[in-house]
Amino acid sequence: PKPSSAASDVYKRQIYNFMKPTPQYNWPLLSERVGTEVWVKHENHTPTGAFKIRGGIVYVDYLRNKKNTPLEFIAATRGNHGQSVATAASQKGIPSKIVVPEGNSIEKNRAMVAQGAELITYGKDFQEAFEYAVDLSKADNLHMFPSFHPLLVRGVATYGWEVFNEIDGLDVIYVPIGLGSGVCGLIAARNLMGLKTEIVGVVAKNAPAYSLSFRDGRSISTNSADTVADGLACRVPNETALSCLLYTSDAADEGLGV
Fold first, then answer.
1. Tens digit of pLDDT for each residue in 188-230?
2. With the CA atoms of 234, 239, 241 and 247 taken in that order, what torsion angle do they form, in degrees rounded to the nearest 10?
3. 137 and 74 in contact (C-beta within 8 Å)?
4. Cα maximum dimension of the chain
5. Cβ proximity of 214 and 202 under 8 Å
6. 90 exposed, middle or buried (CB, 10 Å; 0-12, 13-18, 19+)?
7. Which residue from 126, 152, 150, 133 is spatially nearest to 235, judged by alpha carbons?
8. 3-state helix, strand, coil in the chain (%, to 5)
9. Which residues contact 208 (CB under 8 A, 6 or more apart)?
10. What is the pTM of this model?
């Protein structure tokens, strides 16, 4: 269903009470190299250096206004989602545990601890860390902070709204896919604004789970996700995110780039 404009205004207020919109710039040398006008959305200018914080703010605000507010969160991450959880939770005085795989980015680990999280290291990759976090959430009665959720998508969609609101006549947007909140948020923003911009998802060559799944129209997991692009190191697609992509007709025509 088409997102509600009134609801999107609520999400924007929640986020912009915490941070300002991020800039988008047209870089001449990049445009020259590509051979067309290219704009870059600088989500590295958020307080956590990534777009994920937008979804975290919306998700935590929603739960904070419910009667049974979680006493503690737990999540799994390679870094950006964990920073979102730690920061959004700390803003509301809620503790968080973040599970990361072995060999995770030292800088992102330090950032999550500085943002208020207790860090736990487990597993060889994100999927093993995620499964361990789910087990801990059940054993210790912690709220499992999802890596993909409609509320996260609604928050993330605000960066798409900023792009479409600031740049007229965009033909194509390329967006990287980790678990899918970014690409689904862009689709939601585009549809809400009644635009025809083509959206192309991009996955890492050695983490092609979403590309394979999209091609075959069903969830396909891979044995590994060995890529330096740690935010894209997914080997098990999220079923809801994949359904969103398969449902989107223009994405079905274009496919996912690797």
1. 999 999 999 999 999 999 999 999 999 999 999 999 888 988 8
2. 130
3. yes
4. 55
5. no
6. middle
7. 126
8. 50, 15, 40
9. 222, 258
10. 0.90
Token digits of residue 216:
């075959």
Pairing of strands 172-176, 143-144: unpaired
228 token code pair: 């330096």
Which of the four pLDDT bands, split at 50, 70 and 90, describes residue 75? very high
Per residue in 234-245, pLDDT tens? 999 999 999 988
Candidates 158, 205, 155, 149; CA nearest to 179 is 149
Estimate to the nearest angstrom the gap between the alpha carbon of 1 and the chain centroid. Answer: 21
CB within 8 Å of 25: residues ≥ 6 apart: 39, 40, 42
The β-bridge partners of 173 are 199
The CA distances from residue 75 to 18, 64, 138, 158, 195, in Å, are 22, 17, 12, 23, 34
Q: What is the CA radius of gyration of the chain?
A: 18
Here the tokens at position 177 are 């896919």
Neighbours of 232 (CB within 10 A): 22
Tokens of 2: 């088409």
